[in-house]
Each structure stands twice: as structure tokens, then as C-alpha cells.
Input
Amino acid sequence: MCAELENEVISLFSRTPNGTTSSGFNQDKFLLNPSSNSEENLQQFLFLGILMGVAIRTRKPLDIHLAPAVWTRLASLPLHTSDIQNVDCLFITSIKSLSNIDKSGVNAETFSNVIPIEKFHIQNSNGTLQPIVPGGEDIKLTFHNRKVFSTHALKFRMEESEEQIAAILEGISYIVPAPLFRFMTGDALESWICGKPEIDLNLLQKIVRYRDMDKTHY
Output
């Protein structure tokens, strides 16, 4: 099932924008698909949460590779600009450039000739065009409101998967008490659910048992 999630056979995960554009960090990681928000999808996310809870309880890790930003939100911690940059560096570069476009000599008269975005809408992390504020498809982007646009665009990307996060946490809470996560970091939660990515050789040597050979056998 984990392989199917990451092969996008099931549309719950999507590769990070950095992975799609082959730029920045976490190119091999996945985000929760914010476009998978139907009732059936949210039930699937809830079931994924149950599987995560079982992985914690049984200490049998899941082989899933979610981006750090996802684990941060599952630990109920806030995201920062750096978290979004680590999964979509081109987006952060774009909104910073937009906010500071006056420093490049662009003004109110030339703004529309330089910026292809016309309304208060952007692509979510899965590439689907969505308004960043209610009625955003009817709000014109201008030189004077560009910084407001950038602020809302960043907020939108930080909050785009909150429905999916809530469904997963509900599923986990069926197996593991939810208040426990208040004392955890995203990294710690990932380690609980997925295990450690590196093998401790010293620990392995202490617990290994040999049969018909010893540790000097090659």
C-alpha cells in the first residue's frame, strides 16, 4: 500500500513541487494532495492515520516518505516560510520577487506587462489553480496590492492540506492518545511511524545472533 501511495496510484500523495521541477530540497519526498478532499478521500486519509497509529503501537514502521512539513503539521506545530521553501523553492522565490518588484524598476504602469498573474489565485502544491482568498478569482492583482497577494499566497500554501491533516490525526487518535503529540517534534513523530532512516551498527552488533559462523566469518 505504501508503494501505491507514492506511485500516485491512490491520489492521496503528490510529489513535492521541488521534485517535479528537480530543484531544491526534498525532491524525493511527498506532500498530502490538497486536491484530494472528497468525503471518500478524507475517509482514506483517516484510514491512513489508523495505519500510522498501528505502526506506533506495534513498532512496525511504514515505508512512506513524507516531506518534513507534513510531519511538522501532524505534530500540530506551525509552518514557517522555510518549511514551504524546502518543498517548493520556486514558489518562495516568486512571491519574494513579486513583493520586491519595485526594486527592479517595475511600477504601476508596467506591472501588468511583467507579471502574468491576473487574479488572486495560484496553483496549489498539486498544480490545481485555486483562489487564495474567498472570491479571489474576481480580485485583480495590481502593483499596489502585490504584497497583500504574497502574504495570502504564502498563508494559503501553509494551510492547503489542513483537512487532510485533521483526518489523519483523527485516525491516529483511534489508536494512540492525541495529546501525546503535543510533546513531540515532527522528526520524532516521523521516527515513531517510519522508523529511523539509518542503521546503528554498534547496536546491530550487540543484538545480532550468529548461526554456523562467527563475527569473523566473511
In short: The first helix runs from residue 2 to 6. The beta strands are 13-15, 30-32, 121-123, 129-131.
